[in-house]
Amino acid sequence: MPSTPPVAPRKPTDLPALHGRRRTDDYAWLKDEHWPQVMRDPAVLRADIREYLEAENAYKEAMLEPTRALRATLFEEFRGRIREDDASVPEKDGAWAYYHRYREGGQHPVMCRRPTGAAGSTDAAVNAAPAGEQVLLDGDAEAAGKSYYRIGGRGHAWNHRRFAWTVDESGSEYFTLRVKDLDTGKILDDVIERCSGGFVWAADDETLFYTVLDDNHRPCKVLRHRIGTRADAGARATATATATATATATNDAIVYEEADAGFFLNVALTESRRFVVIDAHDHVTSEVRLVDATQPDAAPILVAARDPMTEYDVSHHGDRLIILTNAGGAEDFRIVEAPLASPGREHWTDLVPHRPGVLIVGFEVYSRWLVRLERENALPRIVVRDLKTGEEHTIAFEEEAYSLGLAGSYEYDTDTLRFTYSSMTTPEHVYDYDMRTRERTVRKVQEVPSGHDPADYVTRRIMAASHDGEAVPVSLLHHRDTPLDGSAPLLLYGYGSYGMSMPASFSTTRLSLVDRGFVYAIAHVRGGTERGYAWYNAGKLDRKTNTFHDFIAAANTLADRGFTRRDRIAIHGGSAGGLLVGACVNMVPALFHAVIAEVPFVDVLNTICDDTLPLTPPEWPEWGNPIESEAAYDCIAAYSPYDNVKAGDYPHIIATAGLTDPRVTYWEPAKWVAKLRATKTDDRLLVLHTNMEAGHGGAAGRFDRLKETALVYAFVLHMFGREAEGLFGRETE
Predict the structure, then answer these.
(1) Is 661 an active-site residue?
(2) Helical axes 68-80 vs 702-719, angle rounded to 10°
(3) Which residues partner with 672 through β-bridges?
């Protein structure tokens, strides 16, 4: 194997000049000009690009050869913490309870159901098929012989006689929809290609609503398919002129087509099942249309016309709509109601008023209850409201940092709420909560077969003062025996974009770091919504650098308080979190010893200037539009990791990529690594791992994913010399 790194040739390419700025990109050649075809068929990747990526993979294997045994050990540790024949808690829907389970050694879920009257039908399933079980889809059998296989959306018809699902077989997030007759077990001829993954059944049990992707990989149309009619040509049809001929070859009707390339579409069903919801949205604006699920051929009805910077989500209850929105200056959102007959914004009245600093994250509506998940000071809680009396009560927990989630329900007329709870020390618990009696029933506790005692670990929440005085929450996990005298290595994780909150939840894999003496930390930086929507707004557009300063402040505070030292910090980020770590190593490279950058969004300026890429137009509200705005161009140019690589010493770095990734295209990390290697002055390790058979999420099988985690964790342990150390409380072999 090669002992010297591959050198990507410099091929200067003049980029289109914007706002009088001229740029040359030495590594633009790594972007295959036929990238949409590559996403659908990786075999068509240009030969010189493939040769370079494979050379980087070979160099990575050579440099990480000393970690081979450690990777195998970590994989076995990860696997030992998983109950291999695990199963979800069944979800009741009338006469049937639906669930998924895994078989011993299986990579993919088996979708199942059983009669609600069957013995054990209210308990989690086990490996041995329980009485009355019917297998709807065997993921392992379907994945056999395929290099990539991932199940997307799935759902049964209302009469329980058909089951539909979508599957991605390349990692590119081009999904194919299929349907099974559950009475006969036959897979129907209805095959819809190039879906975006989601769909819903209408009340007639014959009609499916789904979204399709155009040639730029954008969900731009909602179509209506009737079982038994030809659908394949229509799903391949796009808004381009070349697709006009094929568009007429299908009976699938276009229900709604989005003209703005900056808006994506998705479909859903209200909890009452009364309406199909068609949602058009970018990151800050939304617009909803409703189709009566009992009249699937009806034209969609607009709820409220899109208004820039206004978001809203719609549910249904009786003769009214219940809407979560930030309209009217409700930065942290409020819940309003509107008459079903006149749902326009002028008729919205408060049901749950806006409270600054208390972010309403999401909500669910039942026949007698309104349930909302809200977050204040980076801690979540669930609030249950009696829709008849207006009385409310709260579900919360006592740990310093934890995660809560609403699990949803097939049933609308119910008093049972299902939710999940975990913390960085506590495995996930699934609860059924009686909203009337307020009693909790534990339905499942995540099992760790190799053993886990929460008392062996400590979870904490501290605050770090950022450059402008803002207090940044940091969630911590460490073993109770870890010395907090600055000697411990620390892995700091962050994200900080799109308003996404990083939960302080349980992870079995990170225990392998913590058991080897690492402190694990999550910095809840601006750009997320941990401290409300204002926290998000303060970390986007022209204030994006706050995200980076917050992360650096977290690292410095952890060192100042003795959790680690400044030469003992590794940082980890993926996707937009890869932008975070990439920007930070340009700003203060000496602060960090090692970096994990998974599918990192590092070529920001080039990507956001390229309006042909799948996500670019919808992301201008997040980053700014550098094509139209000189200020946005200069702002992005000032922090884009690829554009700001400079001569000097950098930490040890491992970057990952997925060849068919439509979100962060493979050439972003490839170009970044090539430029780093040609520019940096140190001899620290820099490797690139490209999964040549997967996309943004990496490998699809649950054990294959663990191998990828073992790779990056072994890299970090190796960089700190921790691979041979004994685990707390026991010795390694």
Answers:
(1) yes
(2) 130
(3) none
Q: Is the dihedral of CA 233, 234, 240, 241 positive or negative?
A: positive
Q: How far apart are CA 491 and CA 716, in angstroms?
A: 9
Residue 140: C-alpha distances to residues 111, 173, 597 (Å): 11, 19, 30
Distance of CA 699 to the CA centre of its chain: 14
Cα–Cα distance between 43 and 473 in angstroms, integer?
45
611 Cβ neighbours under 8 A, 6+ residues apart:
261, 617, 627
Q: Decide: helix, strand or coil at residue 36.
A: helix
Q: Three-state SS for 496?
A: coil
Say how far apart CA 733 and CA 170 lie, in whole Å. Answer: 39
Question: Which segments of 556-640 are extended strands (E)?
Answer: 569-574, 594-598
d(CA 228, CA 642): 50
Query: Cβ of 124: how many Cβ atoms within 10 Å?
Result: 18
Is residue 245 over pLDDT 70? no
- 601-602-603-608 Cα dihedral, nearest 10 degrees: 50
Distance CA 159, CA 162 (A): 8
Which region among 40-54, 109-123, 673-687 has the lowest average model confidence (pLDDT)?
109-123
What gap in Å lies between CA 340 and CA 323, rounded to an integer? 11
**Do residues 193 and 235 lie in contact, with contact meaning Cβ atoms separated by under 8 Å?**
yes
* pLDDT for res 129: 63
Range with lowest mean pLDDT among 110-114, 117-121, 141-145, 167-171: 117-121
Q: What single letter denotes the amino acid at residue 159?
A: N
The candidate with the shortest Cα–Cα distance to 521, out of 500, 543, 542, 550, is 550
With a cut of 90, say whether residue 441 has pLDDT above it: yes
Q: State the residue for tokens 């998000």.
A: 536
Residue 148: how many CB atoms within 10 A of its CB?
21
Of 88, 423, 575, 640, which is the active-site residue?
575
Amino acid found at 186: K
Give the per-residue pLDDT at 238. 38
Helix, coil or strand: residue 528 = strand
Tokens coding 359: 């972010």
Is residue 696 part of the annotated active site? The answer reads: yes
Contact between 39 and 679 under an 8 Å Cβ cutoff? The reply is no
Helix (H) or strand (E) holding 672: helix 667-679
The count of other CB atoms within 10 Å of the CB of residue 502 is 20
Per-residue model confidence as pLDDT tens digits over 582-623: 999 999 999 999 999 999 999 999 999 999 999 999 999 999
For 692-701, write each residue's pLDDT tens digit: 999 999 999 9
Question: What sign has the CA pseudo-torsion 77, 79, 82, 84?
Answer: negative
* List 32, 479, 661, 689, catalytic entry: 661
Q: What is the dihedral of CA 68, 72, 77, 82, to 10 degrees?
A: 130
Beta bridge partners of 360: 374
Assess whether 342 carries a catalytic annotation.
no
Terminal-residue alpha carbon distance, the chain:
29
What number of other Cβ atoms are within 10 A of residue 313's Cβ? 18
Report the C-alpha gap between 516 and 719 in whole angstroms. 13
| Closest C-alpha among 262, 272, 259, 190 to residue 231 | 190
Of residues 317, 479, 696, 718, which has the active-site annotation? 696
HSE-up (13 A, CA, CB side) for residue 212 = 28
Pairing verdict, β 652-658 and 686-691: parallel
Burial of 140 (0-12, 13-18, 19+ CB in 10 A): middle
pLDDT in tens, 637-684: 999 999 999 999 999 999 999 999 999 999 999 999 999 999 999 999
